Amino acid sequence: DETAEAERRTGLGELAHYRLTRAVPPSTTLEIEKGLHLEVSTTVISKKGDDAHHVEMCTFWLNCRGRNAAQRVEGFVHKAFSWYCAQLTTEAVVSRHLYTLQPRSEAKRGKVKGGDGVRVYKRYPLSDDKPFDALFFPRKAELLALVDAFAAKAGRYAVAGYPHKLGLLLHGPPGTGKTSL
C-alpha cells in the first residue's frame, strides 16, 4: 500500500515501527525488519584465579536468510550508520571557549582546583551572537561619529594628504565587548 509506505518514510512513521528498550537482555534475538534479526550475546572473560579483573565482551550478530540477504544486511548497516552520523551532527554543540592561564600563586594558595604544580586554566564561554547594539560604553556616540567620518571620508579624513587610516586599541577581560566592537 503506497499510503502506508509514504507514512513510514516520515520520522514519526519510522518510529512507530520500532520498540524502545533500554538494554537488550543477554542472549536475545530481535527481529529488526521482516527476516532480519539481531542477536546479542555477552561473554565475561577473566583470568584463572583472578575474579577482580574481568572483561565483558558484547557481540552483535545480524542474521538474514533468503534472497538478497547480504544486500539487506549491508543496506541496514548503511542506513543505521547514516542515521547515526546525522544524529552526531545534530547533537554536536559547536561552542568556543577562551582559556586563560592562571598564575601559579593562585594555584598554590588553593584558590584554583588542581593547584599541585600543574598548569591551571580558567575557561570562559565565547558567544557568536555579538551585535553592536548590545554594546554600551560612555563614548559610543563619539566612536560612531569617528567611524562614520572615516567611512565617508569626511571631516579630517577629507583633508588632502591626511592618511586614510583608523586604528583602535581594545583591551579588557573576557566578556567586556571587544569582539562586539
Mind explaining what this structure looks like?
This protein is an alpha+beta fold. It folds into 3 domains: 2-45 and 54-91, no CATH class; 95-126, no CATH class; 127-181, no CATH class. It contains 5 helices and 5 strands; from the N terminus they run ααβββαβαβα. The strands form 2 sheets. The chain has a 3-stranded antiparallel β-sheet. A two-stranded antiparallel ribbon has the order 4-5. The radius of gyration is 31 Å and the shape is elongated. The two termini are 60 Å apart. The mean pLDDT is 78.
How are the SSEs ordered, and which strands pair?
Blueprint: H1 2-8, H2 11-16, E1 28-33, E2 36-46, E3 54-64, H3 69-91, E4 96-101, H4 104-108, E5 121-126, H5 140-152
Antiparallel strand pairs: 1-2, 2-3, 4-5
Shape: elongated
Share of residues in helices? 25-40%
Question: Describe the biggest sheet?
Answer: 3 strands, antiparallel
Instruction: Provide the residue-averaged pLDDT.
Output: 78
Please report the total strand number as a whole number: 5
Q: What is the string of SSEs from the N terminus onward? A: HHEEEHEHEH
